[in-house]
Write a structure and sequence with these properties.
Helix content is about 55%, strand content about 0%. The longest helix is centred in the middle third of the chain and has 22 residues. The protein is mostly helical. The chain has five helices and no strands.
């Protein structure tokens, strides 16, 4: 089992190589984010997904993206709604929508 989510690993490892402006970061995601942080995360997701087919040589319709669940909600069910609106919850939904966009090109 992966020690970290794949999205987190990819973003941490590749953010600099993607030509990210300074101050873009993806580690230590807090529950609440600023509009700038959301924009940074969305930029990282879009850039990763847009470049993934060319970087792997795999057509978008053959790529599977597995998105980690909100594990904290398993241990704290009363937090499930708050977690869905957290940075990670919002980014999970964003990643899913963007992955469909890339696959449908």
């Amino acid at each position: 089992m992966a020690r970290y989510s794949a999205l987190e690993q990819v973003v941490k490892l590749n953010l600099r190589e993607l030509g990210a402006p300074t101050q873009r970061r993806a580690a230590n995601i807090q529950r609440d984010g600023t509009p700038e942080e959301y924009a940074n995360y969305e930029w990282a997701v879009r850039t990763f997904l847009d470049r993934l087919p060319a970087a792997t040589g795999i057509t978008p319709d053959r790529i599977v993206i597995a998105i980690d669940g909100l594990r904290e909600a398993i241990y704290e069910p009363s937090q499930a709604v708050a977690l869905m609106d957290s940075v990670w919850g919002r980014m999970r939904r964003f990643m899913a929508v963007e992955a469909v966009r890339v696959a449908s090109r």
